[in-house]
Design brief:
By secondary structure, the protein is an all-alpha fold. It has a domain at 20-151: Tetratricopeptide repeat domain (Serine Threonine Protein Phosphatase 5, Tetratricopeptide repeat). The protein has helices at 26-34, 47-65, 69-82, 87-99, 103-116, 121-133, 137-150, 155-167, 171-179, 182-185, 189-201, 205-213, 222-234, 238-248, 255-268, 272-284, 290-304. Helix 5 (103-116) packs antiparallel against helix 6. It is elongated and about 80 Å long. The two termini are 15 Å apart.
Length: 315
Amino acid sequence: MSEVPSSNTYIPHKQSAQCCPRGINRWIALSLLILFLVSTFPPLWAANQSTEAEKYANNGLDLAQAGNLAAAEAELRQAVRLAPRNPSFLADLGTVLAMERKLGESTDILKRALQLDSSNLTAQQYLAANLWQLHRYLEAKQELEALLKKKPGDKPATLLLGMVSENLKDYAAAARLLGSVPALVRERPESIAALARSLYHTGQKEKGRAALQQLLTHPAGPQGVLLGAQIADEMHDYATAEKLLLSIKPAFPDQATVGYQLALVQFHAKGFAEAQRTLQNLIDSGYKSGKVSNLLGWCYLQQHSSRNRNQIISI
């Protein structure tokens, strides 16, 4: 019999429909981009070339604001071609590339921009967000800590540093940082989940449970609740996990997913008969899969094999 699959799959972050993984929400990205409209460009090139480069750059920013990122990228590339050492143009291009999810090239260009102008906090924040999404957590942490020294209390940077700390398993720092920006944390299920996991890991079970309860009324709906249930299951808070799953089960569009997750929680809680009934109901309703059969087999084994009755699979 194959091993029972783990429920400890934390998504992504990094890349769900509600998040920019483990980056900044799109509306934040666009609002930050507006800052470049009031930037002044240092006179580092000939006057006629400067005028032409600025024209391309301004066109690119207008297109980015309108949501036409491909055209914005083309215009900003022209501006950078004419003025390759202008840090604002590089930062603008790097930002648009980040919004297009071209994270590798965006990271390289943003680093060039910061080498020329280390005071550009917007470029530094996008660079940190890129590094986070590329799973380069230590580098992201360094950029965010440097940014917060320049601008103490910056809330988006604090949120992102909290997420990075959670990825690095520095749960005490993550709980402190995420707990300091509750309004931003509440906006996304992933950040709520990161805060809850950090609170559980630091022995603050009731606070972690309370954080997950927020998902019951979150605009993200059932998918956010499912994520919360996975976190509670991972933290061995089976009662909370089951409560969350039962709250969405009647109307959840994917009954196979929610049913299997519920059975998995019941199995972890040593409710083998309950898990067996949940799985059998899934099969009777036409939901059959290898993982359902596998978990059902483990339920039978735990109930009927005296040799293995007390051998609980650790997953």
